[in-house]
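Team,

Forwarding the record for the chain on the shared tracking sheet. I've put the sequence and predicted structure together so nobody has to dig through attachments.
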Amino acid sequence: MDWKGRRESKNVEDRRGMSGPAVVGGGLGGIGIIIVIIYTLLGGNPQDILNTDTQAPQSQSTGYKSTAEEDELADFVKVVLADTEDVWTDVFAKEGKTYKDPTLVLFTNSVQTKCGNMSTAVGPFYCPGDQKLYIDLSFYQELKNQFKAPGDFAMAYVVAHEVGHHVQYLLGTSSKVSALEQRASKAEANRLSVKLELQADYYAGVWAHYVQGEGYLDKGDFKEALTAANAIGDDTLEKKAQGYAVPETFTHGTSAQRMKWLERGYKYGTIEDGDTFNAKDL
């Protein structure tokens, strides 16, 4: 992706090196952490499955020293966030709406949010309580090494997906789904979650559609995003964690579904073509 020398978003809080208590319910480890990632990776609400304390004491600096590589990655995600600001401001304007920029929080190890105190183990996430997206930049290495999804555009997809959840928040989709989930069975709530996540994938594709139109994508960039989407499908993650997949437990969609909706957003570049809730076939 052509990004160096371009505008960086100012809507960024750099909390790297700030320590604070983070609780991952039940002291999860090994498969447990993978299960947490299955639920929260790329947009799930971590508070649904984590035992969190929203009244934790203030974070404190630990004298953290970032590497040059990490700082370059931070600059990269700031450019990606700036692109999402430009794209969604224009898309909302076409719909007669006003887009409100979210804030990106960079953190290490743990972070305090309006959704609770979170550990790096939950993966990148969006918190509607403070309208902020949270990313530990070490996730880039996880994408490359654990999920076999290398490339800067794979990380860009992660950011764009989380911004997609912010778009859902602004459009009122998230609150409607949350209300429906309160009255739904566990199986139906999971199906609603899948539709919400696939729509966020679609919105990530919308962003990529416009970035491509500006000539910022290099050959093979979008394939990197598709590789990441494929790697984090519920079926793929569950098979990796336990050797088999249980469709009734899916909360984000299969690898095929995630790639399909990401590609659809990339193709159409509109809000209206991303209605996963009324789609006959996900």
